Amino acid sequence: MELPKGKKIYFASDFHLGIPGAASSLEREKRICRWLDSIRDDAAQLFLVGDLFDAWIEFKNVVPKGYTRFLGKLAELSDSGLHIEAFTGNHDLWMRGYFEDELGIVVHHKAIERTFNGKKFFIAHGDGLGPGDLKYKLLKSVLRNPVCQWLYRRVHPDTGLGMAKFFSYMGPKHKDFDGRPFLGPEKEFLVQFALKKLSEEHIDFFIFGHRHIMLEYPLPQNSTYVNLGDWINFNSYAVFDGDKLLLSAYKEN
């Protein structure tokens, strides 16, 4: 795809709407909507790279309560012609058609590769990629199992969503809202994944969420690893103008 003149592609992840409480989540939701309004005129595409919600489970006829402003804004932008694609993360694995049917948004459950203006992008939330983290990989295989999902949907939505929120809140980001530092390339699973991928094919930009760090890290072959940060600490996003990719933070006047 060649970007039209003056148009850009935006990437953001890890909004984690729903935490740490209703008031702060609502304030963050409104801020995200203001950011979406600020990019609407020059955005050609928008990629939402996972963990938009801290706990999201779709039942057959039920979706989680709340997030009206955010979902309405996405519907408005999609209806206006903005092409939006979303990814499931480890906190919103069970997207099952609501975004596609109600918002007109493509949802990816796995990594994708795209080429824009001759630059090759590898885009994924990042959970479960790379070496190690075997406990989570086992858990993810269980959570994504169709039989397990069918059984879970037999639980009343209030109970099912309540359990999801409880276990989500046990995660490390809820204990340290200042984020976790970059551990160095040898200890970062996603950097190791990117290096292995580069040995197989050239990628110009690896775009990930998940780690809650705002980072551009140079890789061999003029490739770049980008972690999008989050909207708990950074209000961060990446933007590609057809030539360069810039990691930035939304600031209001």
Description:
This protein is α/β, with parallel strands linked by helices. It contains 7 helices and 11 strands. It has helices at 22-39, 68-79, 98-103, 134-143, 146-152, 157-168, 189-198, and strands at 8-12, 43-48, 83-87, 106-108, 112-116, 119-124, 205-208, 214-219, 223-228, 236-240, 245-249. The strands form 2 sheets. It has a 6-stranded mixed sheet, with helices on one face. It has a 5-stranded mixed sheet with strand order 5-6-7-9-8, with helices on one face. The chain is globular and about 50 Å long.
In brief, what are we looking at here?
With 253 residues, this protein is of the alpha/beta class. It contains seven helices and eleven strands. Strands 4-3-2-1-10-11 form a six-stranded mixed beta sheet, covered by helices on one side. A five-stranded mixed beta sheet has the order 5-6-7-9-8, covered by helices on one side.
Key words describing this protein structure:
six-stranded mixed β-sheet; alpha/beta; 30% helix; 7 helices; 253 residues; 22% strand
Query: What's the total helix number?
Result: 7
**Radius of gyration over C-alpha positions, nearest whole angstrom:** 18 Å
Order of helices and strands: EHEHEHEEEHHHHEEEEE
Biggest sheet character? 6 strands, mixed
Sheet-strand content, in percent, reads: 15-25%
Determine the structural class based on helices, strands and strand pairing: alpha/beta
Q: Can you count the beta strands?
A: 11
Which parts are unreliable, with pLDDT below 50 for 5 consecutive residues or more? Answer: none
Percent helix, as a range, is 25-40%
Shape descriptor: globular
- What is the terminal-to-terminal distance? 34 Å
Give the overall average pLDDT: 88
Strand line-up in the sheet with most strands: 4-3-2-1-10-11
